[in-house]
Each structure stands twice: as C-alpha cells, then as structure tokens.
C-alpha cells in the first residue's frame, strides 16, 4: 500500500500537467479565434467602405453626365478607398484588437484589402512561459466584385440597361433623367466577401 502512494502522486501530477497544458492550448486557440474574427470584420469593413465610395462616385459621374467615367465606376475601376483604413480600425477596435498591417491588394483582378490585426489582450497566464505577454495575430483579405454586366452595345450617353447577379429585372439608368435615389443598394452593384 505504501509503495503505491508515490505512484498515485506521480500519476496525479502528470494528469494535472496534461490538463493545464490543454488549458493553455485552449487559451491560445481562443485568442487566435478572437484575432481572426477581428481581422475578418476589419477587412470586410474596409471593403464595404470602398464599395460605398464606388456607388457615390458612380452617382456623381452619372449626375455630371460623364458617361465614360460612370461606366468605370460601375465596373469598380476608379480609385476609391479613402476611408477604408479608418473603417478597418473601427471594426478591429470593436473586437478588442488593433490594425497592425493594412494594404490594398488585388485578387483575381478584383480590388480588395489585406488587413492584419493584433489583439489588445494577451493569451494569459499558463504553464507555457511567455503567454502572459503574447498577443494573438491574424490576417484576412476582403474583395470587392462588381455584380453587374452591361450590354456590349451600351451607350453611356443614352439610357442603359444592365443586369446584376441575383436580380430578375434589368436596371435602367438614363443619364438625362437621373436622380441619386435611382441607384440600387450598394450590395446590388458590388459584392464584398472574404478571399479564400
């Protein structure tokens, strides 16, 4: 009986160590998941902000009667994204993280943003040394993709019909009789999604 007591103590210590190690890995995984959620949200916010700018630029170009320019806006070929980094910062902060890397990118010819975030919180104390000061990092890429196609014979100086993915009825824009409220919702014109 007396010789088994050290064995029980030894086994108990091993089981406790393994349980603490699993807990440390769970802490790290939780911090990593939090960082990934923050990165996804920040990248999508940047892309959605730019999508809104594209729709605003499209409306202004149509109202100004600049046919060539508004077709470029519709296809997402114009420069936009002045508020994208601020939008990414705001969403990262809402998820208890901050943007530690930000840049415009292109995925399969479509514009987007690469965003890296770092959590404001650490992994926490554990049996693994250094985790109490370690912050989780993650990155994500969001892409803006035009959802509408114009007819090949479209003349931007006349009323133009174009079809958008998921819409049964073609959308018609007449530059001579245009109001900003005539534009469909931004999500109808451009999709925003995370790159795989």
- How many strand units? 7
- Range of strand content: 25-35%
What's the number of structural domains? 1
The biggest sheet amounts to:
4 strands, antiparallel
- The helix fraction, in percent, is 40-55%
Order of helices and strands: HHHEEEEEEHE
Q: Briefly note the structural class of the backbone.
A: alpha+beta
Major beta sheet, strand line-up: 1-2-3-7
Shape summary:
elongated
Average pLDDT value?
A: 79
Separation of termini? Answer: 60 Å
List unreliable stretches of 5+ residues: none
Radius of gyration: 26 Å
Number of helices: 4
Features:
4-stranded antiparallel beta sheet, 196 residues, 3-stranded antiparallel beta sheet, 4 helices, alpha+beta, 42% helix
Give a structural overview.
With 196 residues, this protein is of the alpha+beta class. It has one domain (4-194). The chain has helices at 4-63, 67-74, 84-94, 186-189, and strands at 97-107, 110-122, 135-146, 148-150, 160-164, 171-173, 190-194. The protein has a four-stranded antiparallel β-sheet. The mean pLDDT is 79.
